[in-house]
Every structure is written in structure tokens, then in C-alpha cells.
Automatic annotation (TrEMBL):
Pfam families: DUF4861. It comes from the Bacteria. It comes from Arenibacter echinorum. InterPro entries: DUF4861 (IPR032342). This is Uncharacterized protein DUF4861. The keyword Signal applies. Keywords: Signal. Residues 1-19 form the signal peptide.
Length: 392
């Protein structure tokens, strides 16, 4: 009996020891930067499956070197009420590696930050959808604005191009500019110190609108028909747009988009789902045609640097090298139809690319060379993403 008791006791202690050992083994996130450049504005995406947790609301990410909690943002991508993903932006030294520990936190324990990545539907200004971060701002146009043009009502807009709002402050301006514009206090078409909207889109592609090309003619969709905000926060804003099926010389094209903008980046990410086309063209308006189109097929970008008001402006389309085929300058007499185009491959009914701008007056870029250096660095980063390992 004594021998049996010892065996049972030993077995129980072994099980307890193993259980404690498993419980005490923390989940570690290792992030590695393979590039010889510092990276401070790239977002790490972690799912529940990666972290082996059921609830992301109680997850904290602690920097093991500084012993401090990272700013995080949770996202419900599918709108079912359950958070699917948690984000954070580590500061990574050139050729650096950092480790983070996943810990359980109480409500309110994670550090907070201002919601600089913001977007919303704007019913008070027909039906714009507008988004921004601490660097740039954009907007697109909805069905009411389209109907106003079709019914010859003043104030409408018929365009699937992307408008650029030239901000030169790092705090949010969307709500403030709309309020001041609509109340008559001031106009966002005049720069009172924060920037302005003096970027003409019209029927052009603006900054990143798409077109289908048949022979030598480009075809476009009209305004978006449906919208859904996915997330806003300190790290990312993202939203869904849907478009009515459109015709490209007899081809019916179906289109929807998820657009996101992360903290510290000048380029929005476009994830477009398409049916009816094998390749697509993302464009940059040439405005007065007094600027310079440049591009780098190996690095996957096309850019347009132009005089703009009392300053200068660079716009760009950028895509992974396996998506970016080529670029071209399309110059025609018809107003607003001249664009610089990136030729992009559609794979499994999807195409992903980035589009955005850099305004000299914002102080971010002093000249065309600095803008193109930014594009090359951004391209290197998407071709060589931060390497993330989760253990155990």
C-alpha cells in the first residue's frame, strides 16, 4: 500500500508540475527587421489563433527590453461583434530584433493614445467618406453626390477618383474642417495654418482611383454605393466601399474595396476585389500637366511631382513587385482625363496597392528626390516585411 501511495503521489506531483510549467511559459513575440533601415511606422497584425487566446480585449503586449506595455488596437474585421485582430507598431532598429511578451491585462491597463487614424461617413456634406492619419487625409464621393450631377443639381460630384486633403498638422482635421466649412466660419479651400483642400479631382483618378483599359480607352466606375467603417484608432483606420457594376466596352466589372491607413504613413492601402477583369490601372491625375512623371518598375511605383499652388506636391501608386507590371503617362486634350497609370495584375479576383501623397508645405518632403527616396524605402519594406515569430 505504501508503494502504491508513493506512485500515486509522484504522478500527481508530476502532473501539477507540468501544469504549472505550461502556465508559466509566456507567449513571446519576436520581431526581426532584415533591412538596414530603421522602421517605426509598420504595423504588426496578430490574430487570436496566433496568440492562442479566445478574447483579445484582455491581451497586453509588453516590450521585454523596456518592460513597458505597447499601445495596441483591436479590430473586428467582419463586423460580428468579436475582435479578430490586435495591432501594434514596434520601433525597430536597422537589422534589429525585439521581443515582446503577451500578458493578461485588466480593463484600462493598456496605455491609450489619441485616435489619429480616423475615418467616417459625412452625411452633412452630401455623402463623402473621408479618412486621415497624422500625415495625410483623403476623401471619396457617394451616391447622393452622383445623383445631384445626374439631376443637374448644383454641388454634386460624379467621380470614383480619390481626393487629397493637404494637411500640415499632425492632429485630426476632418471634423473641424467640415464644421467650419458648413457653418461658414471659414473654408477648407483656404489655408489658415492647418492646410487646405485645393486638389482638383473631377473625372480624373485623383490619387489612386482605378480604371479598366480596353485597347487604348480607359473605363471607370461611378461613385461608391455602400460603405461600412471597420475601425478607427491610434494605429489604423479602415473601411469598406462597394460600387455598382460598371461597363468596360462590353465587360461587366464588379468592384468592392477595403481601404486602410496606418499611423505615420503617407500611403493608404487599397485591397480591391474585382470580378470581370484580369488587370487594372491605378491612376494619378496630371492636373495642369506641368509636373514630372517618374517611376521604377523594379521597386513597383509610379509618381507625379508637380508645382501646386505656392508649394509642390508628389503623388504615387506603389505595389508589390509581383503585382506592379509597368507604368505609363496617358496625356489627352480632354480635361481631367490625363493620368499617370500603374499597370497592376489582378490575382484571384484581388489587387492590392498603396496610393498617397507628400506635400512640400507640410514639411515632410522638401523636393522630388526626398519623395522618391520615401517611395523606395516604402517599397523595400513591403517587399521585406517585418518577420514575426510567436512562441510557444
Amino acid at each position: 500500500m505504501k508503494i502504491l501511495y508513493k506512485i500515486v503521489l509522484f504522478s500527481a506531483m508530476t502532473v501539477l508540475s507540468l501544469a504549472c510549467s505550461e502556465k508559466e511559459t509566456p507567449t513571446t513575440i519576436t520581431v526581426k527587421n532584415v533591412l538596414d533601415q530603421e522602421r517605426t511606422s509598420e504595423t504588426i497584425e496578430l490574430t487570436k489563433a496566433m496568440l492562442k487566446v479566445e478574447d483579445l480585449s484582455s491581451v497586453g503586449i509588453k516590450n521585454k527590453e523596456t518592460n513597458t506595455l505597447e499601445i495596441v488596437q483591436t479590430i473586428d474585421n467582419d463586423g460580428d461583434g468579436t475582435m479578430d485582430m490586435i495591432l501594434f507598431q514596434p520601433k525597430m532598429a536597422a537589422k534589429g530584433e525585439s521581443k515582446f511578451e503577451v500578458i493578461t491585462v485588466e480593463p484600462g491597463e493598456n496605455p491609450t493614445a489619441e485616435e489619429l487614424c480616423y475615418s467616417r461617413f459625412v452625411p452633412e456634406r452630401t455623402d463623402d467618406y473621408t479618412w486621415e492619419n497624422n500625415k495625410v487625409a483623403f476623401r471619396v464621393y457617394g451616391p447622393t453626390a452622383q445623383k445631384m450631377i445626374e439631376n443637374k443639381v448644383p454641388g454634386g460630384t460624379l467621380s470614383s477618383g480619390v481626393d487629397a486633403w493637404l494637411k500640415r498638422v499632425d492632429y485630426p482635421i476632418i471634423d473641424k474642417w467640415y464644421k467650419e466649412e458648413l457653418s461658414g466660419v471659414s473654408s477648407y479651400h483656404k489655408d489658415t495654418g492647418e492646410g487646405l483642400d485645393d486638389f482638383h479631382v473631377g473625372a480624373s483618378r485623383g490619387v489612386g482611383g482605378i480604371a479598366a483599359k480596353v485597347d487604348t480607352t480607359y473605363y471607370y466606375s461611378k461613385n461608391y454605393t455602400k460603405w461600412r467603417t471597420i475601425t478607427t484608432g491610434p494605429i489604423r483606420t479602415s473601411f469598406y466601399l462597394e460600387y455598382a457594376a460598371w461597363d468596360a466596352n462590353g465587360k461587366t466589372i464588379k468592384e468592392s474595396r477595403i481601404i486602410s491607413l496606418d499611423l505615420g504613413q503617407n500611403l493608404s492601402k487599397f485591397n480591391i476585389t474585382l470580378d470581370g477583369v484580369d488587370d487594372i490601372y491605378a491612376g494619378l491625375t496630371l492636373h495642369e500637366k506641368d509636373g514630372e512623371v517618374s517611376g521604377n518598375t523594379d521597386m513597383g511605383w509610379v509618381s507625379y511631382w508637380q508645382p501646386h499652388g505656392d508649394s509642390e506636391l508628389g503623388t504615387a501608386i506603389l505595389a508589390p513587385s509581383d503585382t506592379f507590371s509597368d507604368f505609363e503617362k496617358y496625356d489627352v486634350p480632354t480635361k481631367d482625363l490625363s493620368n499617370a497609370y500603374a499597370h497592376l495584375k489582378v490575382k484571384n479576383n484581388e489587387v492590392k496597392y498603396y496610393a498617397g501623397f507628400g506635400w512640400k508645405k507640410s514639411g515632410q518632403f522638401n523636393n522630388k528626390q526626398e519623395w522618391e527616396q520615401y517611395l523606395n524605402a516604402f517599397s523595400e519594406q513591403i517587399q521585406n516585411p517585418l518577420e514575426v515569430t510567436v512562441t510557444p
